[in-house]
Amino acid sequence: MSIAVTLHLLAAVIWVGGMFFAHQMLRPVAATLLEPPLRQPLWVGVFGRFFPWVWVAVGTILATGYYMLFVVFNGMANVGLYVHIMHALGLTMVGIYLYVFFGPYQKLKRSVAAQIWPEGKGHIDRIRDMVGINMILGLITIAVAAGGRYLH
């Protein structure tokens, strides 16, 4: 159980921390300093390095979460409400990530390769919005994970 919890938390920190850094620090600086012909390839490169880590994090979170849920606790009926909330938020986050990866991110890569900057901007804007939502959901999920068992 201790290994599962540790891996689960490390994966969440990598994913949510990466979103927080990209959304709150890198994005505003890149938008201020770089024109679209430089900014959009930057984002393709950043996402190209970050998204493989997200795939590993998502797989780790799901594997360890379901291991703890079904092997350690013997199912959903045996866990507190906070675990159900984490589960729902986590699955929502995975859905948003899948949408971003297979939708706007793929379109952004094509737009950048073709140097169609106005089109690329639309895809970056959509990714920014979805990452912002996912980041907030991730922070809420972490708060629920940390304090949920103490709510009665």
Care to describe what's here?
The chain is mainly α. The chain has one domain (2-150). 88% of the residues lie in helices and 0% in strands. The chain contains 4 helices and no strands. It has helices at 2-33, 36-72, 81-113, 117-147. Helix 2 packs antiparallel against helix 3 (81-113) and helix 3 (81-113) runs antiparallel to helix 4. The protein is elongated, with a radius of gyration of 17 Å. The model has no long low-confidence stretch (mean pLDDT 96).
Helix-strand blueprint:
Elements: H1 2-33, H2 36-72, H3 81-113, H4 117-147
Helix pairs in contact: 1-2, 1-4, 2-3, 2-4, 3-4
Output mean pLDDT. 96
Order of helices and strands: HHHH
- Percent range of helical residues: over 70%
Number of DSSP strands? 0
Helices and strands: which structural class? mainly alpha
Number of helices: 4
Count of individual domains:
1
Low-confidence stretches: none
- Please report which band the strand proportion falls in: under 5%, 5-15%, 15-25%, 25-35%, 35-45% or over 45%: under 5%
Sheet with most strands: none
Distance between the termini: 24 Å
Shape: elongated
> How much is the radius of gyration in Å?
17 Å
